[in-house]
Specification:
Helix content of chain A: 25-40%
CATH architecture of chain A: 2-Layer Sandwich
Strand order of the largest sheet of chain A: 2-1-3
Order of helices and strands of chain A: EHHEHE
Strand order of the largest sheet of chain B: 1-2-4-3
Strand content of chain A: 15-25%
Strand content of chain B: 5-15%
Radius of gyration of chain A: 19 Å
Largest sheet of chain B: 4 strands, antiparallel
Helix content of chain B: 40-55%
Number of domains of chain B: 1
Shape of chain A: globular
Distance between the termini of chain B: 20 Å
Radius of gyration of chain B: 17 Å
Largest sheet of chain A: 3 strands, antiparallel
Largest interface: A-B, 23 and 35 residues
Number of strands of chain B: 4
CATH superfamily of chain A: Ribosomal protein L7/L12, C-terminal domain/Adaptor protein ClpS
Oligomer: heterodimer
Structural class of chain A: alpha+beta
Number of strands of chain A: 3
CATH class of chain A: Alpha Beta
Shape of chain B: globular
C-alpha cells in the first residue's frame, strides 16, 4: 500500500497568498450593480437576463438584492471579462462597477 | 403607444398624436447622460486604472455616436416611422427594440442626473426643471411599453 505523501516545508520560507501577484486572468474581480432610484426593477431584471443569459428567476434574485441591500455582486471574473460586463451594463445605463475581490 | 402587431422579426406599435410628437422630441435629447457619469471602479484599486477607465470612456463614446446616428436614421425613415391619420406607426425588429430601450434609458437617467439625482420626485417641479422631469417620465413610459412588448414575445 502506498504511503500518504507528507508535504515538506522548508524551514525559513513561509508563503502566503498575499505574496502572489494576482493574475489578470484569475477570477479576482467582482462585477457589482449598485442601487439607484431611477432604473426600473423590471428593466434591471431584463438587462441581467440579456447581459448574463440568466433565467428570469436568477435575474430577479440579483435585482432584488440590488434593491434591498444596495448592491449585488453579479459575477467574479478575470479583469478583462469583468471590464466587458461592466461595459455591457453601463451601455444599458445601469450603475455598475468592478472591484477587486480581496 | 400600443403594440398592434408582433411577429418574430417585427413589432409594430401604434402611437397617438401626442406620442407621435413627443417620442421624437425625447429621442432627440439623446445622449443625455454626462460622459463622466460612468466609472469603472468605485475603489479605483485596479491595475492601470486610468488606462482602463479611458478605454471604457472611449468605448461608451463610440457607442453614443453610433446610437445618435441610428436614432436620426430611424426618425427619418418613413417606412419605419410612418405617419397615419391617428398618429404614427413604428415598426422595429426585436433587436431594435432592445437598442431603443438603451437609448430611452439614457435619456431617463441623464434627465435624473440633471435634476440632481433625487431619491424620489424632485421636491419642486418648476419652470427650470420641468422639461427634465417630463423627459425622465416620458422616456420611462416609452421604455416600459417597449419592455412589455419584448417580454410578451419571449
Amino acid at each position: 500500500m502506498a504511503e500518504t505523501a507528507t508535504p515538506r516545508i522548508q524551514p525559513g520560507t513561509v508563503q502566503t497568498t498575499e505574496d502572489k501577484p494576482k493574475s489578470t486572468f484569475e477570477p479576482g474581480y467582482m462585477v457589482i450593480c449598485w442601487n439607484d432610484p431611477v432604473n426600473f426593477m423590471d428593466y434591471v431584471t431584463h438587462v441581467f437576463q440579456v447581459v448574463f443569459g440568466w433565467s428570469r428567476k436568477k435575474a430577479e434574485f440579483h435585482m432584488l438584492q440590488v434593491h434591498e441591500k444596495g448592491k449585488s455582486v453579479l459575477t467574479r471574473e478575470s479583469l478583462e471579462k469583468a471590464e466587458h460586463y461592466v461595459h455591457q451594463l453601463q451601455k444599458y445605463t445601469l450603475h455598475a462597477t468592478m472591484e477587486r475581490d480581496e | 403607444m400600443k403594440l398592434v402587431k408582433a411577429t418574430k422579426s417585427q413589432l409594430v406599435f401604434e402611437l397617438g398624436q401626442r406620442e407621435k410628437r413627443s417620442l421624437p422630441q425625447i429621442l432627440k435629447l439623446y445622449p443625455c447622460v454626462p460622459a463622466a457619469h460612468h466609472v469603472l471602479s468605485k475603489s479605483g484599486r485596479l491595475p492601470d486604472r486610468e488606462g482602463n477607465q479611458q478605454l471604457l470612456d472611449e468605448a461608451l463614446a463610440e457607442q453614443r455616436a453610433e446610437n445618435k446616428k441610428q436614432v436620426q436614421a430611424l426618425l427619418a425613415d418613413s417606412r419605419r416611422f410612418q405617419h397615419t391619420e391617428t398618429g404614427a406607426r413604428l415598426s422595429l425588429s426585436p433587436a431594435e427594440v432592445e437598442w431603443l430601450m438603451q437609448v430611452l434609458n439614457d435619456v431617463r437617467v441623464g434627465s435624473w442626473v440633471i435634476l440632481g439625482c433625487p431619491d424620489e420626485k424632485p421636491a419642486e417641479v418648476n419652470a427650470s426643471n420641468a422639461s427634465h422631469f417630463l423627459a425622465m417620465e416620458m422616456a420611462g413610459y416609452y421604455q416600459m411599453q417597449l419592455l412589455q412588448a419584448l417580454e410578451g414575445e419571449t
